[in-house]
Specification:
Radius of gyration: 16 Å
Number of helices: 2
Shape: elongated
Order of helices and strands: HH
Oligomer: single chain
Length: about 90
């Protein structure tokens, strides 16, 4: 029932980790070789922030509210929806 939504969540999560780790590695290599680190660091930081916010704003398949965030706080490692309590990767609305 929620498979398509969770696949979108996995895509957002993977994209965040690829940008975070891959961009950090690229910026680290640039620093080692004496390149201008800001050329790599600034786009990496912006990309990491954007993919993080996209992951955090993932709408819960059950209630439609952001899965990881409430108005006051967010938890990127949450195992349940911050609003309705749906378990992460749940197949049915249990």
């Amino acid at each position: 029932m929620y498979e398509a939504a969770w696949e979108e969540y996995r895509n957002r999560d993977r994209m965040f980790w690829w940008v975070l780790l891959g961009g950090g590695l690229l910026a680290g290599v640039a620093i080692q070789f004496g390149s201008i680190a800001a050329v790599f660091a600034v786009p990496w930081l912006v990309g990491t922030a954007l993919t993080y916010l996209r992951k955090m704003a993932f709408p819960c398949p059950r209630c439609g509210n952001p899965f990881h965030m409430t108005v006051l706080a967010g938890n990127p490692f949450a195992r349940r929806c911050a609003h309705c309590g749906l378990r992460k990767l749940a197949v049915r609305g249990s």
